[in-house]
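Q: Please design a sequence for this.
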């Protein structure tokens, strides 16, 4: 049975295996579910912490629009780059495409917030993973959105 507990007035779901970000311990340790049902997730808080945003400075980071809103409210410029990448590409395909001659120079230098179903990742312009709290060996997750963050 799943039990919830209340911590500082916030409903917290059952403890799960602690996610380990690639760049070290940042963000929240486990998902935080508020009474409204909205969440602050491990992967999105790790992405926001990489960009210098403290998890205590925002309430929700459940989906792509929440993360982009938090980035913009904290002075970051966020620009979509979906039209510049091949249609229907996976994260692994994006990394390969960025390293190839076809991908060189298509995207600006910087860090990219990549959203896939149920997860968030940060990669650089050379296709290297910077933040991924749930890395997989063969990454076939389809990209829902990619944005340049400055």
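A: Design:
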């Amino acid at each position: 049975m799943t039990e919830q507990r209340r911590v500082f007035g916030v409903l917290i779901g059952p403890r799960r295996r602690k996610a380990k970000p690639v760049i070290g311990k940042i963000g929240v340790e486990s998902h935080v579910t508020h009474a409204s049902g909205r969440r602050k997730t491990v992967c999105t808080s790790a992405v926001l912490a990489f960009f210098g945003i403290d998890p205590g400075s925002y309430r929700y980071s459940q989906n792509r629009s929440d993360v982009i809103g938090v980035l913009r409210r904290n002075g970051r410029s966020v620009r979509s780059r979906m039209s510049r990448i091949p249609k229907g590409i996976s994260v692994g395909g994006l990394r390969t495409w960025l390293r190839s001659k076809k991908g060189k120079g298509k995207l600006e230098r910087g860090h990219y917030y990549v959203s896939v179903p149920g997860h968030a990742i940060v990669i650089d312009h050379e296709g290297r993973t910077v933040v991924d709290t749930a890395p997989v060996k063969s990454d076939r997750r389809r990209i829902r959105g990619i944005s340049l963050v400055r």
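Q: Thanks. Anything notable?
A: The chain has two domains: 5-73, 78-149. The longest strand covers residues 111-116.
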